[in-house]
Structure formats: structure tokens, C-alpha cells
Amino acid sequence: MRTAPVRRRRRRKAPAENRIGLGPEPYRGLKTTLCAGCGHNSISERIVECFFEMGIDPTQVVKLSGIGCSSKSPAYFLSMSHGFNSVHGRMPAVATGAVLANKNLLALGVSGDGDTASIGLGQFVHMMRRNVPVVYVIEDNGCYGLTKGQFSATAHLGSTTKSGIANELPPIDTCGLAVQLGATFVARSFSGDKKQLQAILKAALSHRGTAVLDVVSPCVTFNDHPGSTKSYKYVRANNVPLQSIGFVPHFDEIHVEGEFPPGTVREVEMHDGSLVRLEKLEEEYDPTDRIKALDRIELASEKGQILTGLLYVDTDAPSFTEMLNLDDTPIAQIGQDRLRPPKRALDEVMAELA
Amino acid sequence: MQSVKVAPVGDSLQLKAREVVNDFSIHVATVNGSGSQSSNLILLRALFEMGIPVSGKNLFPSNIAGLPTWYTIRASKYGFTGRKKEVDVLVAMNGQTGTEDVESLHPGRAVIYDEPLRLQDLRNDLHFYPVPFDKLVAPVCPQHKLRKLVRNVIYDGVLASLLGVEMEELRRAIYKQFGKKPKAAVLNWNAAIAGYEWAEKNLEKSDPFRLERMDGNEGKIIVEGNAAAALGAVFGGVSVITWYPITPSSSLAEAAQEYLKRFRIDPETGKATFAVIQAEDELASIGMAIGAGWAGARAMTTTAGPGISLMSEFVGLAHFAEIPVVLINVQRMGPSTGLPTRTSQGDFLSAATLSHGDTTHPMLIPATPEECFEFGAKAFDVAERIQAPVFVMLDLDLGMNYWTADKFEYPDWNMDRGKVLSEQDIESLQGDWGRYRDVDGDGIAYRTLPGNRHPQAAYFTRGTGHDEDANYSEREEDWIRNMDRIKKKMIGARRWLPEPVIDDNAAARIALIAAGTSHEPVRESRNQLLVEYGVESAYCRVRGWPFSHNTEEFIARHKRVYVVEQNRDGQLRALLRRQFPAIHDHLRSVRYYGGMPLDARSVTDAIVEEERL
């Protein structure tokens, strides 16, 4: 890890083309059909910006989702990428299969809190356990929007529905769960915090293995009222960012800018050489210390804080496709000559069975 | 298909004076977990090496150790290797079941038993051979802990003496069985000798059953259907297997993994051209297979009934979103957890129409190890050709038991990767393509694979309504057009499925239809009907669903067609009636659903009753 603070070179204005010569259009999608003001739309916008700015080839991206409002959103970005709106809660399996077939694909999974923390909890857990290379975004609004506002499993104890019914069950903290299960990149953000969400998304795109991003994303129709803990107002009032996050992509020249008191900046070098630069707002927080991360997440939950920032990262763990020691050619592109063993192989087995 | 018409059948125990050579069953009753599987396989292999057509079926409980288990070996010089209902030679090692096992025998049969069980007092019309297994095992196996395992090989030696199993073949079978453990081989061989020598000295043979060398197994192999299907998948180019452990399919995925490790790791780089993933459940295993199929891998999952139920929603998605994936279903007895270690053909209906809405999924139904191999490979061609889930329907009897088979033939066909557009294809179409357009009129549209670098290659896959260009649509015209196209595709799928094997017969009084493991019993039953009742029959063995027009014509030609199957509700017949409503009144039903491998006698008895013979 580097010790000197660095800052990416400032750009005067947004370029019309990115480093692979594409304009922003291929990164956009269809017009959203979600409600006006829905947090998910802001997340879609960040996805468009980040993929464009990172110069990611959209033909090498797959965008996958489960079922729910959030899971509709892949239609609203990356029109040049293959998309897969699968079944409720089981996008992790589909994403796993897709990256097994073609390990060169960049998989972006979009899910919701119902999709992830209720029906899909089993798949979510095992995806992280395997460290499947997927950027997994949970668009977390604490309720089921498409079926008119029922509580989800991330709704806080005591928060209410629009009609005033209080939630009697404790929430599942997807980030706490992720850290506990050994996920290798865990972050929480807020759909209304453009700068933080952008930096975290870019960092996640540079990670190998599962990157879990829980993005609190208010539901303007069903869960943006005074009794909600996932409303714009509540999140703004209770957001406790752990760090101010900067991101220097691997293809940008890195140069030092300014001096910072020792211990106030932490840099994490991602697998692809990008740098995540964390200006610490909580001095003692170390995003590579799992136990402390869990502690801090618990504390936030007790205090009713929405703790945001990079909660945990492990850049050394091998991803699932690396562990499988797959051929250099993606499996899906291997032809008959290498998929069908030669005749002598069958003769050998037949001799053994005779 | 050869139809043997030479075997004299009937209760062979008006046998008194005459010998019964190479045509009887051996039934070994032991306790689960006592190592009897090894001694049974050794016996099976020795008979196989003696050139006698033979099969071995494990009738086992859902248990690791302690419960009763039986192994039944059928030796048949006529080549009938289905289960024989009547037991001819009983080896009774288990006190829990000894009395019942002996009481169920027909007169004149032979019983080799563990002396302390004192079974000879139960009947006076059987040939009893008490053997002091504990006394015999002690000197050859000083280690007390191993005696429980080794004493079973002693009955192999005793049977060698009484029935005429060649000791040299027994020795070779023991050394093959314990190939990697020379000490165990020596120990077991000594135990077999002890049994043989003791029997030679102390037993006087009074029963008629005898084995002798013949030449029935030239060029044959012994193999389980699961291993055969696994090999088929490997030589069919499977590249992603995702599965969840479940009896009776687990050994299929495990065998495939072993063969893949052997043959599909690049010797130079040490890297794999495959991935085998044990998933967290069947919801995930089918999801992963679908994701992999979508992205262009030859993907499959292996499972059994409960897994099929869990996969239901995902299979509907793959059907509707048109994603190739192979499901190998090794059927066991349901509903629910059912009889998890017993065989059944109870998933025909559920697999064929799995999921909600109008869904149909082609099935390939192998009856032999050769077909497990062939269909295990071909299923991928069918799935990629029609871009849909395809089922390969084995059952526990076929999958987990040992069968004699011809050596498998190396695939002489090229893999069919289906309608996939490359970057160049899209370029030459100037980007004008639609994922669900019926360009060729066969209902099969063209797809692109994720990672295709052409800027117009991408499309959006979804289980919700979509138009021909894969756009979200709730318009009724779009919906109906899409559903009709998929139907057309599925009807057309027949041309990629294996044709029925038809043995027609102008003199036939009745006809039979069967599939899968009902084949051996039906083959033998036809012989029984002919020899014992003078009834000529015709036979159509279906191997794929939707059924071929050849099956339809066969039914139309015959007035009374008995559909033989292993489930309560006549599922195969229901599928036939559904597809051929005009001739449904030709169809009659023979059903067995007790969980044992089907036997010929049960089929014959049912037809005899129905025909009032």
C-alpha cells in the first residue's frame, strides 16, 4: 500500500469520448419507468457515468437482476451490454453461471432489499462465500415497491409504513452479514450522495471478487414519509460517512498533491492497479480489519446511524473463477477440438470397464 | 433390438432332477454398511468374466449402516438381465430378515446362511447350506475390526464351490476390486479361499443351480448408467456442471467430475476447460446452469425428483427466455421424500411440463448404458439447437446399478452449437437482427452470446413479455406470436430427438410401448407371453418426448397397445394420449410402482389378466 497521498489529475471538462473512444450514449439505456424521484434512478445515472468514465467496454459487461423495482433498472443503463432480468432472489446463481462460462465478462448485478435479504438471502450468502466476481448493488429502500409498500427484511425495527403500521421485526444488515461471511468488498452509500457513490462504484469495478454495495435508495411512493428510516430526510440527517473517498483509476497518471497529516489518509490499491483514497473522517477506522468493521457496523445500528463508506476490503483474496483455475480462453469460446476428449481417452475408459 | 424367442420359462422348479445352468438369480441379504457391496461386485464381475450375461441390482435402504439391504444378481444365458422376481439362490447373512427371506422362497431353492441363524428349521422343501462364517473368518483375518467386512467375501468362496464360479475369475475380480489396496486384496482373497475350501470339504450339493463358462460377454463392459451418462456428457463437451447432492444422481456428477479432471485439464497449462460446482441447493444449481448456458457454455445440472420440483420456476424462465440447459433427472420414488433409494419413472409428467404457464420440455429417455452415453452427449446438441431446457430421464435402477453393455462408440457427429450469431454475422446483417424473430420458419430464433463485441449484439433477456426484438412488451399480439413460435419450435424439436425403436410383428395380437428401464422386463415378458401363452406381440420403445410420428403410426396399427411403466398414474400413457388424442382408445396400461426394479413376470401377469388368457 502506498503511503503518500495522491490525487488524480483534474480534468477541465467532461470529455465527449472516453479512453476507448466511446461517447456516453452506449452507456445509457431506455427511459426509466420507475417513479419520478426514485433513488434507483440516481443509481442508474451513477452507473452510466462510472462505466463511461472508466472506459469500460460495454460489450464485455453483463448486467443482471432479480425481480422488483430495482431489478427493472438494468434496462435503463448500458444498452450495449447483454442484460438478464432473471427470477426473484436468484440473480447470484445466474451471474455465477455467466462468469463461469466467460470469466472475462464484467458482471454487474442489481438487486433490491427484498430480492437480496428475503427471498434471495441464501444465494446472496453463497455468492459472497465463493467470492464470485460480481459487482452486486443492493438498491435498498426497506420496502416492496412493486407490490405496494410491504416491509422488507432491511426495514428497521419500529419504522412505519405510510399508513402508520410499525415494523415489529429487526432488520437484516446486509453489510454486516457480508463482512461476517468474508465478502471481500463491502460498502454502503446513499443514492443521494453522488460523489461518494461514484467513488465507491468505481472502486467496486476495480475489485476482483464479490463487491457488495448496499445503497440506501428511498422509495418516494411508499417509504419517504416521517415514520421511515429510509427516507431522503432521515438518511441525510443520520448519514455518518466513514471516509471521504477519492478514486484514481489505473489508467490515470498518479501524482502527489498537497500534504496531509499522517494517519488521516489511507490508500487501497485495487487488483487492477487503481487506487482508492480514503480521507478518514473517523481516525481509528481501518477498512481491512474485519472485526473492527463488524463492531462499528453494530454500533451504528444501535445508534440509528446510516454508516456509509468503504466498510471492508480485502484485495488479496482470489476470486471464484481464479480458484477454479479455468483455461485462459473463456469456457464458452472453447471449441469441439478441446471440449471433446480424443478417441483414445474413451478407449482407455472402455478398457478399464471391460 | 434383438428379440430372443428361445428361452423356456415358467417356474423352473419342477426342476428336481434336471440342472439349471446359467439361468437363475442369486439374492444376497446383508446389513447395510457391512462391506457386502464389494463382495457382491466381485461375484458379479466373476460371472461377467465367465462370459455369462449378468446384471446386479442393489436394493438398499435410505441408511448408512445397520438396516437390511439386498443385492440381486441375475445370470441369464438368454440375455435377460432384468430383475427376476423369484429368488433361486439366497445368501442369508442378516438375522433381521432371514426368516422372512426364507419364507418367501419357492420350493426347491437353495439357501446359504450364517449357521447361528438356524434357518434350516423353517422349511423342509429347500436346500439348506449352513456356513460358520465367524469361525471361518477368524483365522484369515486376525484383526477383529476388519472381520465384519471380510466375512462377506467368504460367501463368494462358498458360492464358487456350490455353483461353480471359477476361482481364478474370483481372484481376478478381487484384485480388480481392491486394485489400489494390495493388502486388502490378499486378505479378501484368503477369505474367499477359506470359504471355498470349507464348502468343498463340508457341503454336499443337492440343488440344481450351476454356472458354467460361456461366451456371452465378448467385447462388453460392466458399467452403471450414471457413469455412462457422465461419460456421455464429457464426450458431448459439457463445460459447466452445477449440482446439489441428491440420491440417486450424486454419483453422476461425481463421476463426471472425475472424468473431466482426467481428460479436460490442459496438460501444458494445467488449466481446466470445465467448471463443476456443488451449489448450495437446486435453486442455485439450475440458476447457475442457466446463467452458463445463456453465456454460451454447455451447461448441465444433475438431480432427482425433489430437485426437479425446486427447479420449476427457473426451468420456466429458461423455456420462455430460450436458454439452452441440460437437466439429467435420475428418477426416484416420490412424491415428497418418498422412497429415496427406490426406483421409479414418476417424473415423466412433471419434467415434461415443469413450471407454470404453458411449458414443455423435450425429454430423452435412455434404457441402457449405451444410450445413457449417447443421450448424455446428444442432449447438449438438442439443447443448443432448440435453445431450451432438455431433460435426460434416467432412473435409479439404470443410474446406480451395474449393467453389461457394449463398448461405447466414440461420437461420430460434430457438436451442434445452434444458431449463434458472431460479430461478423451481425456485421453482415448490418445489425438488423432480433433475438426472437423467426427468420427460418422453424420457430428457432438466433441468439448472441454475452461478450460478443459487435455494438449491436446485445439484447435484454427476461422472463416477462417481450417482442421479437427482445423489448419488454405486454401487447397481446406480441405475447401470442411469441407463445405460438415457441410451440412451433417444440413440435419441431422432435426431429432432433432419438426415434423410437420398433419391433413390429404382422402376427401380433397385442402391442407394447415402454421407455427407459421398463425395456428389459418388457423384452423378457414378450418372450414369456410367446412361449407360455403363444401370444405374439409388437413393441415400440420410445426414447424421446415429444413423441415421433412413428410412435403414432405404431399405435394406430395396433388395436390394443399396453403402455408399460413404473408409476401409479400412467404418466407415459397420459403423454401419449395428450399428443395423440385420436387414437387414445388403443392405449391400455400396465403400471408398477413398488420401488423395485420392474420384473418381467409382473408385466406378463398383468397382460395375461387383461387379455383373459
Q: Can you describe this structure?
A:
- The complex is a heterodimer of chains A (354) and B (613).
- By secondary structure, chain A is α/β, with parallel strands linked by helices.
- In chain A, helix 1 crosses helix 7 and helix 3 packs parallel to helix 5.
- The mean pLDDT of chain A is 94.
- Chain A starts with 6 loop residues before the first strand and ends with a helix.
- Chain A has one domain: Rossmann fold.
- Chain A has an eight-stranded mixed beta sheet with strand order 3-2-4-5-9-8-15-10, sandwiched between helices. A three-stranded antiparallel beta sheet of chain A has the order 11-14-13. A two-stranded antiparallel ribbon of chain A has the order 1-12.
- Chain A has twelve helices and 15 strands.
- The radius of gyration of chain A is 21 Å and the shape is globular.
- Chain B is α/β, with parallel strands linked by helices.
- Chain B folds into four domains: 199 residues, 3-Layer(aba) Sandwich (Pyruvate-ferredoxin Oxidoreductase, domain 3); 184 residues, Rossmann fold (3-Layer(aba) Sandwich), CATH 3.40.50; 73 residues, no CATH class; 111 residues, 3-Layer(aba) Sandwich (Rossmann fold).
- Chain B contains 19 helices and 24 strands.
- In chain B, strands 10, 11, 12, 13, 14, 15, 16 and 22 form an eight-stranded mixed beta sheet that branches.
- In chain B, helix 2 links the parallel strand 5 and strand 6.
- In chain B, helix 1 packs parallel to helix 4, helix 7 crosses helix 8 and helix 16 crosses helix 19.
- The radius of gyration of chain B is 26 Å and the shape is globular.
- At the A-B interface, strand 3, helix 3, helix 5, helix 11 and helix 12 of A face strand 9, helix 7, helix 8, helix 9 and helix 10 of B.
- Strand 3 of chain A pairs parallel with strand 18 of chain B, so a sheet runs across the interface.
